[in-house]
Specification:
Length: about 200
């Protein structure tokens, strides 16, 4: 996958949603979403597969527009994304599983101590609750707020809140887990990028 290109397309999607919903042109965000899917899958597909995927996306967008379901899909996606993220964190809190953030912490060299387990479990709970709350608010705004208000929150502010928690958690962890090794935020990001995310998500 072309990561820089995928990142650029992904960052343009919230802007496209705001413009598309505000000016009632759902084709704009749908086209950006289809482009993101293509970019993400491009490297893993053969030439024929790329053509099939592109044609399928074009047909899907046409059917959504003709059936008047395009805007419904745009309103549903943020709720599904946040709901699935909440479920991802929450299901790892089962008694027969390891909390998701605990898995990452241990894989990145954290000590296997009660303090680390307690902190990372509480942080996993925090992420699950935040994502669930954002899903609920997005759904409520979709039903009762103006289209522009919903678009700005569900496709902008909610991701800023996620980013805020991610950024603020690092200094908090350094303060609460003073005995753990800390090499700086940039080194932390580089180490996080090197983790086998597929293995982390498959871990019981």
């Amino acid at each position: 996958m072309n990561t820089p290109l995928a990142a650029c397309v992904a960052l343009s999607y919230p802007v496209a949603v705001v413009l598309g919903v505000t000016f009632e042109i759902p084709l704009v965000p749908l086209a950006v979403l289809a482009s993101l899917i293509l970019v993400a899958a491009w490297a893993s597909l053969a030439a024929a597969g790329r053509g099939v995927l592109a044609a399928s996306l074009a047909v899907g967008i046409s059917l959504l527009l003709l059936g008047g379901m395009a805007t419904w899909l745009l309103y549903t996606l943020p709720v599904l994304i946040m709901g699935l993220l909440s479920l991802l964190f929450a299901r790892s809190l089962r008694s027969d599983s390891t909390p998701l953030i605990t898995r990452y912490a241990l894989a990145m060299g954290a000590s296997d101590t009660p303090a680390v387990h307690r902190y990372t479990r509480n942080l996993t709970i925090t992420w699950a609750l935040l994502c669930a709350g954002l899903a609920i608010v997005s759904a409520w705004l979709a039903l009762f707020a103006t289209a522009t208000t919903w678009a700005l929150f569900a496709n902008g502010i909610n991701y800023l809140l996620l980013a805020g928690l991610f950024l603020l958690e690092y200094p908090l962890r350094r303060w609460l887990l003073r005995d753990e090794p800390h090499n700086g935020f940039l080194a932390y990001l580089m180490e996080l990028a090197r983790v086998d995310h597929h293995r982390m998500l498959r871990h019981p």
